[in-house]
Design goal:
Pathway: Cofactor biosynthesis; riboflavin biosynthesis; riboflavin from 2-hydroxy-3-oxobutyl phosphate and 5-amino-6-(D-ribitylamino)uracil: step 1/2. This protein is of the alpha/beta class. The chain has six helices and six strands, in the order E-H-E-H-E-H-E-H-E-E-H-H. Bound molecules: ligand LW54GNZ2 and the ligand CC(=O)[C@@H](O)COP(=O)(O)O.
């Protein structure tokens, strides 16, 4: 079933993000798409209570470099979650497959190796129109969906802090 709407969320079901620090690593390939994803993510984090100063953004050349960029950000910043933003569009060759597989496996590896949830905000589309539809178009904005995921995962990462604070 095709994507319905990526932008809908119910704040009543989302923890407050005021105490969390977020990283966002953004691919420079297809900037007209990734900039919209980035804006959607930032706006949503702020709407969920995040403080502007607690959102750190870095750019990388392409989606394949998202993995290294996220790794270096994890190693240099104290973060509660990272959003990896990219847009890969099928071209004439199999390069699309390898970029998508590489960034997917790399982000999985980061989630396993480090204790910072890395959110997969990479549009892997057959056509430019599919990317437009999912980055603020008729199907919503994947950046919004991923910001909500980042807040929820940051809360899970900090569950021990919450339980300690209430004496469990
Ligand atoms: N074709 C797309 C790319 N290709 C570039 C790679 O991501 C990478 O930067 C290069 O292979 C050097 O390592 N990247 C995208 O993000 N989107 C594309 O559609
Ligand atoms: C998806 C990509 O990596 C992009 O560079 C596709 O280019 P190509 O037409 O050479 O497959």
């Amino acid at each position: 079933m095709a994507t319905t709407n990526l932008s809908y969320y119910d704040k009543a079901t989302i923890p407050n993000a005021k105490s969390f620090r977020f990283g966002i690593v953004v691919s420079e390939w297809n900037p007209e798409i990734t900039k919209n994803l980035h804006k959607g993510a930032i706006d949503t984090l702020l709407d969920c209570g995040a403080i502007k100063e607690n959102i750190i953004s870095w750019d990388v050349p392409g989606s394949f470099e998202l993995v290294y960029g996220c790794k270096k950000m994890i190693q240099s910043e104290k973060l509660d979650a990272i959003i990896a933003i990219g847009n890969v569009i099928q071209g004439e060759t199999k390069h699309f497959d390898f970029v998508c597989e590489g960034v997917t496996q790399g982000i999985i590896d980061l989630n396993v190796k480090y204790d910072v949830p890395v959110i997969f905000c990479v549009l892997t589309d057959n056509t430019k129109q599919q990317s437009i539809d999912r980055s603020g178009g008729k199907l919503g904005n994947k950046g919004i969906e991923c910001a909500v995921a980042a807040v929820k995962m940051a809360a899970i990462k900090n569950l021990h802090r919450i339980s300690d604070s209430i004496g469990f």
